Amino acid sequence: MYMLKRIANTRQFKNPISRQIKNMENNLFESNSHEESNNLANVLETSDVLPDITSGNTSDPHLSAYIFTVPKSGNKPEENEDAAGVHNNYIALSDGASNASFESKLWADILVETFVHLPPRDMSTLLEQWLVAPIKQWKEKVTGASLPWYVQGKALCGAYATLLGLFFEWKQEANKSESDISIGKWYAVALGDSCLFYIHKDSLVLSYPIEKSADFGNTPPLISTFATDNQFVLNKLEKACYLGDFFLLVTDALAEWLLKEIENNQDSWQDLTKLTKETDFIYLVENLRKKNLIKNDDTTLIIIQV
Amino acid sequence: MSYEAQITRLNPTCILFILDQSGSMDDPFGGQTGSQSSKAQHLATAVNRLLYDLVLECVKRQEEGPRNYYQVGLIGYGSNNVNVGSAFVGSLAGQDLVWVRDLANNPARVEDRFQKVDDGAGGLVDVSIKFPIWVDPVAENGTPMEEALHKAYTILEPWVRSHPHSYPPLVIHITDGEPNPNTDPSKPAGDLRKLATDDGNVLVFNLHLSSQSSSPILYPESDTGLPDQYAKQLFQMSSVLPTTMQQAAGVFGYRIGSQSRGFVFNANNDSMIKFLRTGTIGGLQKLLR
């Protein structure tokens, strides 16, 4: 399991803020009355480390992966609130909310780790059930009577984050040298504005879940540490997978820029698929920031190649 | 464009409250009778609660204290002790401006208060929360409003010079009465509104607490319909709400126009709490980095 460093971001989330307003007179902090589900904590304690993600190798022989991240300009790496992880055929990206959200980075980490190690058995199940263990884990880390008043108070705000998950199912006897025949299926699930770009035969086929740059102004629902806020059913995207396919998983600032480029018939996504060094990624993002082409936000890219 | 500067630890902003602590604040809100809490008590609770929220807004992670995104000041006027001066009590007493982190670590005391919370099953339960106190209710003497606004000017004039790229300071003035005779608070209020950073002029918002049972006049765009000269004067002293604050007021369901001023006349407790939020966190939240 490879985890990223992350930091504070620039985004606004209607979800936590509207809860905060609701809490002005009625502060909410529900007790977690659900049954303790699985042994997530043990899994995370003993989680294996990927061979070396920065070299593109993964523990799934079908996939190569790179993960790059850069904090918002002016912030320290440990303040980066994005989280990303790859484990076997499961990949996840999460972007913790900055406003009205506490320990977002911790929450994003937990969501990513849970998704890649203990994914929902059936992606169409209610998120609420799958989130019992991660919520418990988050709460255990942020509660304690000896903590300063403002930590106790902020914990009542809960945490919010996006989640973008990608996973693969391989055919038993796929012809691995024939690029026209599918070698399996890929699935994506998403909540929030972290975005997946799918590239097949050097063409950008789709972006998910956001298709237009204009849709980034909207405030999507996020995954919350309040169980009652997570009454979502995950919509699953299911497609055939071919040798040579590329997947880019990106947080919102970069996703918005990519969609704008695509809308202007620019194929900048091609540059991203070629990245192999973190320094090149940082250079690219800093350049875009200087030109005011992307928001100053924590920015993360996962590149997956089949 | 103005009022768009990102609020960072390098370019923080400043929020200065001016609190009427004159004798009439001892009365309940207009229209209420019997042993109601006084306006001064409601105001102290609302300001303590807002400071609580302002601190929490700067808390991101357990292992790091609150981030210094702003300095906060409380000027009281009318009380016996100070006439015009710092309204902080406890170890911050006498200070004009304090950083959020110092605010967080130095309340006069922390009380246990109960709050209704969602029990997760559609009901409400009481939960104890830690409630820090920085200001106590005070209601004494006259209403030296002009002097208090001038004091704000002397604090913010050097502040804008030393923070030229910051989101401009916010001045939130809360009063229930008319200024002392033969004084004119609109002069220092005008001086305050002329102070500026690169990102815009100092914002001055005025909240008038009701002594009558009439409905509040919320964020008016003109002084038409305001009941008297005094209300018109407070309107003239108030800045137009920047876009982010118009949106923040809109969240509460208020109808806000492009020329709406940061001004409420005849506020009750509910409109006071919403005003305080709109003119501070509501408008700044999205700019914090």
SSE inventory with pairings:
The complex is a heterodimer of chains A (306) and B (289).
Chain A: H1 14-22, H2 40-45, E1 64-70, E2 82-87, E3 90-95, H3 104-117, H4 127-130, H5 132-142, H6 149-155, E4 160-161, E5 163-170, E6 184-191, E7 195-200, E8 203-208, E9 223-224, E10 236-241, E11 246-250, H7 252-263, H8 269-273, H9 278-290, E12 299-305
Helix pairs in contact in A: 3-5
Chain B: E1 13-20, H1 39-57, E2 70-77, E3 84-86, E4 98-99, H2 100-105, E5 109-118, E6 124-133, H3 145-162, E7 170-175, H4 186-194, E8 196-197, E9 200-201, E10 203-209, E11 217-218, H5 229-236, H6 243-251, E12 263-267, H7 269-284
Parallel strand pairs in B: 1-2, 1-7, 7-10, 10-12
Antiparallel strand pairs in B: 2-3, 2-4, 5-6, 8-9, 11-12
Helix pairs in contact in B: 1-7, 3-4, 6-7
Q: Would you write up a description of this structure?
A:
The complex is a heterodimer of chains A (306) and B (289). By secondary structure, chain A is an alpha+beta fold. Chain A has a single domain, classed as Phosphatase 2c, domain 1 (4-Layer Sandwich). Chain A is built from nine helices and twelve strands. Chain A has helices spanning 14-22, 40-45, 104-117, 127-130, 132-142, 149-155, 252-263, 269-273, 278-290, and strands spanning 64-70, 82-87, 90-95, 160-161, 163-170, 184-191, 195-200, 203-208, 223-224, 236-241, 246-250, 299-305. In chain A, the strands form three sheets. In chain A, strands 1-12-11-7-8 form a five-stranded antiparallel β-sheet. In chain A, a hairpin with a 2-residue loop joins β2 (82-87) and β3 (90-95). In chain A, α3 runs antiparallel to α5 (132-142). The longest helix of chain A has 14 residues, at 104-117. By secondary structure, chain B is of the alpha/beta class. Chain B has one domain: von Willebrand factor, type A domain (Rossmann fold), CATH 3.40.50. Chain B contains seven helices and twelve strands. Chain B has helices spanning 39-57, 100-105, 145-162, 186-194, 229-236, 243-251, 269-284; strands at residues 13-20, 70-77, 84-86, 98-99, 109-118, 124-133, 170-175, 196-197, 200-201, 203-209, 217-218, 263-267. In chain B, strands 1, 2, 3, 4, 7, 10, 11 and 12 form an eight-stranded mixed β-sheet that branches. Chain B has a two-stranded antiparallel sheet with strand order 5-6. The longest helix of chain B has 19 residues, at 39-57. The radius of gyration of chain B is 18 Å and the shape is globular. The mean pLDDT of chain B is 90. The interface between A and B is large, with 43 and 38 residues.
